[in-house]
Every structure is written in structure tokens, then in C-alpha cells.
Amino acid sequence: MNNSLPAVEIPQPSPRSTRPEILAAEIIERLTYRIGKDAKVAKPHDWLTAAILVVRDRIIDRWMDSTRRVYEQGDKRVYYLSLEFLIGRLMRDAVSNLGLMNELRDALASLGVDFDVIAGLEPDAALGNGGLGRLAACFMESMATVDIPAYGYGIRYVHGLFRQQMADGWQVELPETWLAHGNPWEFERRESSYEIGFGGSVETIGGYDEPPRYVWKPAERVIATAYDTPVVGWRAQRVNTLRLWSAQPIDPILLDAFNAGDHIGALRESNKAEALTRVLYPADANPAGQELRLRQEYFFSSASLQDILRRHLQQYPDFSNLPDKVAIQLNDTHPAVSIGEMMRLLTDVHGLEFDEAWEITRGTFSYTNHTLLPEALESWPVPLFERLLPRHMQIVYAINAKILVEARKAKNFSDQQIRAISLIDENGDRRVRMGNLAFIGSHSINGVSALHTDLMKVTVFSDLHTLYPDRINNKTNGITPRRWLMQCNPALTSLIREAIGDKFLDDTEALHALDAFADDAAFQEKFAAVKRENKVQLAHLVGSRMGVRLDPSAMFDIQIKRIHEYKRQLLNIVEAVALYDQIRSHPELDWVPRVKLFAGKAAPSYHNAKLIIKLANDVARVINNDPAVRGLLKVVFVPNYNVSLAEVMVPAADLSEQISTAGMEASGTGNMKFALNGALTIGTLDGANVEMRDHVGAENIVIFGLTAEEVAQARADGHEPRAIIEKSKELSQALDAIASGVFSPDDRSRFTGLIDGIYNHDWFMLTADFDAYAAAQRTVDQIWTNPKSWYSKTIRNTARMGWFSSDRTIRQYASEIWRA
């Protein structure tokens, strides 16, 4: 008897209207029936939610169509696993990519609502921190733009990293409450829920005449539940999915304990589960923090892989074609435990033999490395890893045995080389090397700039590169021009369209036509007017938030990025102190008015980074209140750096600070955003600065300092910072002023340790590069005093940055790694 229901032809809804009057009517309908408000009493946040729901409906039509096409055509899917997705606000992004900006503005205006006002109320999604997360967001938008079917997988953080406030110049970390009033962009997918285990034991089953099977019996289990956010590509050609995992306990409350009076203990399972998705990068200076980080990484990796394999089996009978239909990209080492988890799922759950599972795993995964810093290549203490993931520890040892035997027999590796490629670091306490696991378990390993990729081959992965010489390749990072030009700088976008037409909107490299206008006096005047208006907006923001008055006619010199010693905010601050001394000592000279603006967050447990923030604020307090400076120099640290703040600061920058120690910045993407928006770059030959110089022209970028090779050689020869300081009058005076308490009269010794580190160690080569940096800044001053030369260079920066689009990067990933 056939009980199946007959196939039903489901009618597809007609495309929704884009006419302003229809949009306005729908906004009122959503306001009334979804939010429960009369238009007469609706508040701005009510209008925002109603508008988002109307926009979202138009996204859903395209989202479902994109999903159907993948199933019907059997396209290969790309899965991007990242611990961060710094997507920022979505309203302007979605409306712009749908091509609805003018229509929605008109619709809201007819209701007496200003689009810009309500769009500014949308909270930034607290799903990331720095360049890693912003790159993932750009990549997701570009994958949809270039028609690559893709899912992004991450964690739905309740509080993100933290909300940064200043208390007497010190960073204070507060919870980021972006989800306090819900998120109208997302959809809960209760049907996409998976059990995630921790701890417990592994049992071996099977008779004497059959191969053993391994059964992991976790001691703890939580549920991962999916929340989906649509990601709209340019012109809405495709809508992809950002799937984020939230954690729930299997037993939310232990009623017996609660009724017995143990109200706190009764909720311990709930609290333990919720801790997994509370905070991005919990401090790992203690064992509890380390364990929580590893739990987070395994939690989202396991949920993602279970979801991927389930989806694959919905279309195909087995996993033999998984590498042909699935590409999984690991964004740094955070999801590297996925290699072990994929092996566990294929062998223990789905019954594949180890060698077959290994071939499928390696054919499916690829890994992006973002750092040459050893401490950033994650590793976990073996006892912690084994206690938390006992089956995965067995799999890691099995993979390690396979690789080490291969290296010894096929490549005749020495003991030293064997130690270098091993998944277990035997130096000191034994640790599991996640970078090595990601490398060995992937068919492709890419760097994110040409310099970074070359250095990978001779530094952190030199021996693995010898073992697998065809795996490392380069994919220089890019940025989405929709967010980082069209949306954040509409006035410049309009000016460019007026000059060269609309082709660049779809092909960023068409910006090169703007070169013809670089020396055109009339165009320069318009370009300068756009820049000044952007500076006025930033000055207004700084004034309203911080009470500091900025002169838009001054040079806006901006460094915005995560606070880290290798990024050398300290070099910038020390040079500001030296410049302060020079302005006071030589008032007769024609100094260029300059505002040095900083923004960025320091990791809560990173003492020196937090001290650098305090120093910036202390230096700002002294300089900004000294009448002898005559307003020629101001220093401002703008708190709580996020995507929305960057969207104001980037278009306003005259000078972009990209001054990391050469050989330590993998790529950078802030450098690309600034240059695209018409800022001159001052920087070292580090990361993508090298390729930017090649594209914009050496005459249109200000380069200083040691190269990566010279940095390595200086360290090898025994860098002597004290001798360098003694030979540099400006540097020694600036360091002495900071160390002696000139900027910290309330605590004269506050910065003594920070400055002692420069005198005695200076790993980040501040002293070696200081004089060259100061001289480069004076070169910038000279260019600034000739506006025709300045705008010629900055216009050429905008014109020649088209290659650094994330669309180009994604096309390279698709053709050379994913085969998608």
C-alpha cells in the first residue's frame, strides 16, 4: 500500500514591488501587525524593525531561489568556517545590494521617517574583533556577489568581544548587548540542532575476526542550534547563508536540585552551555579560559560538520564524492579541530575505513593562515585536549603516525625535521599543534599576501613545505567595494560615477579610468571637497562623543586596528611625543596642523596593549591642553572601535598608518580601505603594503623602515636598541619624557616598564625604525603643503586599488582551491 501523498506543485510568490508607495504600505502593515504599534506612537526603533522586515521579505525571495538552484544544478558548495564574522550593520548593506536605496528612502520619507536616522540605530553585530572577522564578512558578501553557493559557519555570540569604554584613559571592558532586543535579520532553525559532546571515554567494540570500531561516550552533552542570516550579494544575484550556532543545555534545569533549595546548582548545566556562546575569545591566561576556548572551537566545528554531512547525504548516497561537492575553508587555526572531527564522523559514525576517510578529509579541507607569530598558531596542552576530546586525541595520534612514517620513509626526514612537522610539540609540556593539523589535513594552504606566503615557506611551515611542496599558495586579501566605498563614502562614489561612468560598480578594476583625472584641477577640487565633508562628519562624531574639537583643515592621520605591539601603535605615539617637543622648541617653523587619531581594542589579558591605550590617552591629555602647541597637533583615542566607526573614520583619513614590524603583518585590509577612499599610506614593506606599492606606484605611497629580511638579520645579529637610542636625540628625549612621568604625573613610574622593554629588548624594532619613520612623516608634511601633488597621489590611490577587491580574491579561491 502506498501511503505517500501525491506531489503538489507549490506556487511561487510573485516578485515584490519596489515602488515607494508599496514599500510604505508594507512598512505600515509590519508596524501594525508584526510590532503592534500605531504609526502615530511608533518610535524610531519601531520604524527600523518594520523597515528591516520589509527589506527582509525581498531578500527571502532571492534566498530561496538561490537555495533551489544549488539543489537543482548539483553545484559544489563552499563552507567557510570562522570564529569571527565582523559583519557590522546590515540595513544599508542589504538595501544597497538589492538596489532599493532610493525607493526605500522615498517610502520612509513619505511616512515622515529619515532613513539615515533609523539606520544609525541598528546595533553592530558583535560577532568579531579585527581583520580576521572583517575579512570573513567581506568574503561572504563577495561569494554571493560572484555567484558561489556558500555557507558561513560561526558562533552566535551574545556579547561578542566587549564594549570598550575609557575610565581615566584606561580601557574598561563591558558586555556588548547587541542581541538585547532581538535580531530581525536572523531565523532560528530548530530542525538544525545537533548534540555536541565533551569528555568521557572511548570504548572499542568488534569481534576477533572484524576490525575494531570506536565509540566515544561523552560525559557532557550540549545542543547546538542554528540561526541563519541571509547574506546578499551585489545586485542580489545570489543570497547565501551565514549560519551561527547557539548553545543550549539538554537539561535546562535540574528540578530536583532546584526544589531542594540548590537554586544555583540547578542551573549549572544551563550556565555551562550558555558560556560557550557568551564571549568571543575568553581570556586564556588561566586553565579555565583555555578550556572554554577549546570547547568553543570544537562546539562550532562539530555542529558545522554534522550539518554539512547531513546536507550532503540528502542529495547523495555516500561520501565518495564529498570533495567534488563540498569545499571547507578553515579561516585560521580556530576551526582546525574540524580535521579530527571529520575523521571521527566518517569513521566512527558513518563506518568508513581510516585511509578512505583521510583521503576524503584532505580532499575537502583547505586552510588559510593569517599569522607568522608562533603564539598565534594555536596549540593545546595534551592533557587538556585528551580530557576534553579523548577520541580526537586518538585520531590525532593516528594521523601523526601516518605522516611521520611517510616523512621518514619517503623523504628521509631528519629527527629535527620530524620534530618540526609532528602534530605533538615535545618541547617542554606536550601540546597539540593546531597549525600543523590544519596544514596536514588540507589539500591547500594559502597565505594572504605575496610576502606572507613566501615567509610561510621558510619560517613556520618550512619543513611541512618540504614534505608537501605543492600545497602552499597565495591569495592576497581584498575588501568588498560595496561596503568600503559605495556605502561608507557615497559622495566619493557619486563623484567617480560623474567622472568615469558606472562600470566600476560591477568591476572595481574599472576605477583605473580615474587616473586620467588625477592632475585635473577641477576634479581635484571636487575630490578635496568630498574629503573635507567626510572629515567634518568625523569631527562632529569625535566632538559629540568625546568633547574634543577637531579642525577639518588639519591633516587627519589615522591608525585604526587591533592594539598589538607588532602593529606598533607605540611607534606612532612616541613619534607624536617627539613632534610635540619639536613644535614647542621651534615655533618659528611652518608646522603642518595634524590630528593623530587612534582606535582599537586590546585583549583583556594583554597588559602592554592596554598600557599603550593608556599612554595614548595620557599623551593626548597633555598635548591637547598645551597652549604652546597652538592647535598644531592633537591626539585622540576614539573608544569602542567597530565597523560602524570605521565607516566614518576611513573616508575621513588623509594619512593611513600601516607601520607594523616588517614580516609580522600577514596582509592587512585596513590599508586597502583607506587607499581606496583616497588616503595616502605611510607604511613598512609588510603584508599587502608590498603589493599596494606595486599597484599604486612607489611615488604614491610613503615607505620607510627595515624590510622583513633586514628585521630577521638584525635579530640574528643581536639587535642593540640602547645604542640606537643613544644616537637619536629625538627618540631618546621622547622615551625619557614618557618613562620619567611627564605624561603621567599622577604615577611617574606608570610607563617605566614599557619603555624599559624598548631599551632592553625591542623585539618589534621600534628603535630601529624610529628615525626613518620620523623622516617619512616630514616627507608627508612636504607633500601636504603642495595640494596639487597631494591630491594627485591620493586620487591615484583610489584609481589603482581596484585589484584589491575581495571579488578578485574569491574568484581566485574558487578557481584555484575550491574548484567551485
Automatic annotation (TrEMBL):
Keywords on record: Allosteric enzyme, Carbohydrate metabolism, Cytoplasm, Glycosyltransferase, Pyridoxal phosphate, Transferase
Residue list for modification N6-(pyridoxal phosphate)lysine: 673
Annotated signal peptide: none
Enzyme Commission number(s) of this protein: 2.4.1.1
GO cellular component: cytoplasm
Localization per Swiss-Prot or TrEMBL: Cytoplasm
Catalysed conversion reaction: [(1->4)-alpha-D-glucosyl](n) + phosphate = [(1->4)-alpha-D-glucosyl](n-1) + alpha-D-glucose 1-phosphate
Keyword check for DNA repair: no
Keyword Iron (UniProt): no
Requisite cofactors: pyridoxal 5'-phosphate
GO molecular function: glycogen phosphorylase activity; pyridoxal phosphate binding
UniProt GO BP: glycogen catabolic process
Pfam families the record matches: Phosphorylase (PF00343)
Family: Belongs to the glycogen phosphorylase family.
The protein's role, per its UniProt record: Phosphorylase is an important allosteric enzyme in carbohydrate metabolism. Enzymes from different sources differ in their regulatory mechanisms and in their natural substrates. However, all known phosphorylases share catalytic and structural properties.
Name listed for the protein in its UniProt record: Alpha-1,4 glucan phosphorylase
Upper lineage: Bacteria, Pseudomonadati, Pseudomonadota, Alphaproteobacteria, Hyphomicrobiales
